[in-house]
Fold each of these.
Amino acid sequence: MRVTIKDIAKSANVSTATVSKVVNNKVDDISKATIEKVNKVIKEQNYTPNSLARSMVTKKTKTVGLIIPDVRNPFFTDLVRGAEDIAVDRGYNLFFCNTDDDLSKEIRYINTLIEKQVDGIALAGSANRNPDIEKDVNISVPLVTLDRNVYFSKVKGIIEINNFKGAYEATTHLINLGHKDILILVGSQDLKISRDRLRGYKEALKDNNIIINESNIKIGTYDKEFGKKTMDELKCNSSATAIFCGNDLIAIGAMKSLKKQGLNVPEDISIVGFDDIYIASLLTPALTTVHQPSYEIGYKAVELLINKLENKNNVSKSIVIEPQLIVRESTCKIKDKFKI
Amino acid sequence: MRVTIKDIAKSANVSTATVSKVVNNKVDDISKATIEKVNKVIKEQNYTPNSLARSMVTKKTKTVGLIIPDVRNPFFTDLVRGAEDIAVDRGYNLFFCNTDDDLSKEIRYINTLIEKQVDGIALAGSANRNPDIEKDVNISVPLVTLDRNVYFSKVKGIIEINNFKGAYEATTHLINLGHKDILILVGSQDLKISRDRLRGYKEALKDNNIIINESNIKIGTYDKEFGKKTMDELKCNSSATAIFCGNDLIAIGAMKSLKKQGLNVPEDISIVGFDDIYIASLLTPALTTVHQPSYEIGYKAVELLINKLENKNNVSKSIVIEPQLIVRESTCKIKDKFKI
DNA sequence: TTGTATGCGTTATCAT
DNA sequence: ATGATAACGCATACAA
């Protein structure tokens, strides 16, 4: 039998109300003597309050859910850590949920989180979405989305990255190096981030009077396999001299394929990634990529969520974070074929 | 106001007991008609049970705590995912806690987890430990440790890797390539894994009649910085032709330093890591390392924990996982200086 | 300054 | 086949 507030009350010869008050430091009108007496007994009996019972009456669990696609994606690894840091800092705990980009899994998680009475949810949605299904999901707690758009009804806050700008700058960088025939490998167009990145790519080309070649646009998933497979299939059938990858994992897969084909990066083909995950700077050649502050994204998302929960007013609903192009070794000036 | 079991009972003209039974599928002696009636009302009113209230009476939360040093260490990234997968599979949720190898943070987490009434805890302990302090911590829930030893009193299960063997094989591999003067960069000797890895190294040398040079043994932390700093300091002051690193991060740091010094891996110096994190195979040269199935370690740990919780008998208390040497490109035969 | 009593939403026991 | 009710451990309004 765990020791309860009643046991303490009995041992200290006070009421449970009094014990409760000293436990919660609401001791304005409690004599010093009793406070000490109660604390002594608490220590002696090794009493720990039962959060469940407390939450039953306070209607707060000091717990939030964090839902992401997959922590093994290095972008989310850091994001998760940022989320956890601010959570504990504010006295909250985190339920940890991976969806594998599966919407039904995501919805199942949301429901169990609600059953567990989380105060709120921070959600990086699955890549595959379905407005029809989402409309019907009843989410009775505050929800903040990060990095990815969703169609649930009651979103209380949004953290997003300026993906358009990141893609625009990455593409412009390639154009400035003389590339005109540029592949783009990007993720599902269900995702706003993917649409924005594609839009940034197109806009950059347009602004430089380069005609968009639709066959240069490849839509897939944000993993190494997509990059590898796509470049394996393309082989010599593409005249592209540069690739803009929707994220670093795709870039890694593409580089692997190119290496196997005997092509050198960046001499034969330039590559730009997106995310700037930990590995990016460790690769050979080190990857030119668009840096996203993923730790900060997780941190800010949960911070925003908790601020909402605690009714801090003048809390903005939406935060946009600016990405930044990091030029490393995987991009260089186009070879001038006519000179040879 | 959230809708409760009472609301459903009233609307369906039954008692709360009946509703509870259909919610929990204990419908052996409930008429089909009422079951349907109740379910209909539940759907209409969008009722979701309150786990807290349930847990109050059942004394189970279907929640476990997962405590690790840092999810950003790729070894733990995978481990965490394995843990989560088995948890949901068994109907549990996971509280996610990072300690940064800080024992006091670890203990604080354990206490809040207990307050939140987790059914059990899976703990990868901090690197820095203190038996005196640990003895006094009262852990009232089942605890399973993984990867790292602790001195808490009531450990119910242990998942460990055969670190001795891994280190022995890594070192033997280097010896077989002709190396005799081998550095070891390993983590805090508070940790059994570190002691075991050092022991494996020493034993391998001994078994090959190589005298152990104590100045070849460097103790530090399991991160890139330690590897880099140590090799920066050593420069030409070491005659070593090979390095065995306590983990891959240390190896990455060491490689970085060597590169800057103009030394080539493996031609000038061979390097072996430990863990086989995702990056290892992506580096240039690809890292020879000791593979640990980190996903599986997390998975098995939480599986063991839940089995204990659910009183599955004949559950072993301890599971040992065998690591495996993966030879890649960062090791080669020693240059025979006399031949030149 | 302290204590009494009620309710939070469920499950489970025992009646009916 | 169904219902009444006690309990789970706590916080809080109100009384004393």
Amino acid sequence: MAFQSLLDYINAVVPLTKKEETTLLTYVTKRKYLKGQFILQQGDIAQQECFIVSGCTKMFHSDHSGQEHIILFAIENWWTSDIGSFISQTPADFNVQCIEDTELIQFSYHNIEALFEAIPKLERFFRKIIEKAFVATQKRIVRNFSLSAKERYVIFRDTYPELEQRIPQYMIASYLGITKEFFSKMKRQLLKE
Amino acid sequence: MAFQSLLDYINAVVPLTKKEETTLLTYVTKRKYLKGQFILQQGDIAQQECFIVSGCTKMFHSDHSGQEHIILFAIENWWTSDIGSFISQTPADFNVQCIEDTELIQFSYHNIEALFEAIPKLERFFRKIIEKAFVATQKRIVRNFSLSAKERYVIFRDTYPELEQRIPQYMIASYLGITKEFFSKMKRQLLKE
DNA sequence: AAAATATGTTAACCTATATTAACATCATTT
DNA sequence: AAATGATGTTAATATAGGTTAACATATTTT
């Protein structure tokens, strides 16, 4: 069942007892969204952190001229949320929208402190997954500074081969920080090489 | 004394008992570096996470053509380290170098697990500071995508007015992801407006 | 199956920022 | 105080990537 993938994921980082597993499940909820639906909208306050059981989402910022900038995709066994909004309960900078029908498990702000009281080792679990996410974003900043769009694309393709199959190219362009037109031109150049 | 700034900083997030404070101090070490010295070099494995008591550091990546890309400055009451290298004990992507004489307090990889056993609430402390750092880097990625260099500079200046006084401009240019020459041109344009 | 919508390509032209190189100024060392 | 090194400026030229607009091809919806 759907909760098993979450338990497997957590157990790989901090092993839980059966009792803790049962307790944990009383704190979370399962939810399904359809392709196109928003899990979070910019300006709203994030009430949930989401673990994705199946499907695919994008997190993006809409700038003053209406352009979308994708900063994160998430598929099975990944997490998504505007963490800044969640932890300080302030308006979100980001939208989270489903690009496939998506099933996910939600951790809610209203009871996450109680969950940490109930299962203190989850504090360590969340520390570790945030550490990994932080390292990934820091590396992305450097790559955006030091590499060309073409080099960043090759790294993206090699790092997330599954994603390239599931996601429209104009979204990959947005994730790379370039326009879809330039992305198209770039790929043609790559083929010629 | 120097350790007090660390204790104050931690107590603001997770209040410690006197006993815990004493315990904590047996796990950390104070160290001084001179301007120009490296706290960590790219390729080495980070053994420490550092809390800065006084002074100023830059963390940067040297790319294949030898160019420096600064991804973080740190002054009093900030943290610095290559977290990716520290948590997985792999070669660092970043250098950390002092741009002023710097005094700092080090948390070592070899005893940080023991420290978490001794004072479990530090797990929460580190989770919270990493969360904040993560949010900051994610916002930086969006700004790099959606704003011009001029807009990013104005935000930098407004967010860290102390930093602009202490740090040479060519390093601020590097932090913004532009060349020092373009930074110079940009500032002249800003004055004219 | 036609219409509508979403996705992808191409090409002409444009702009923000990089590169190179020369020079200016300031701080530190001898 | 001269010399050295670190920092900052200017200007000419170059380029990665953006913009606009038209068209092409899938994929859904009716």
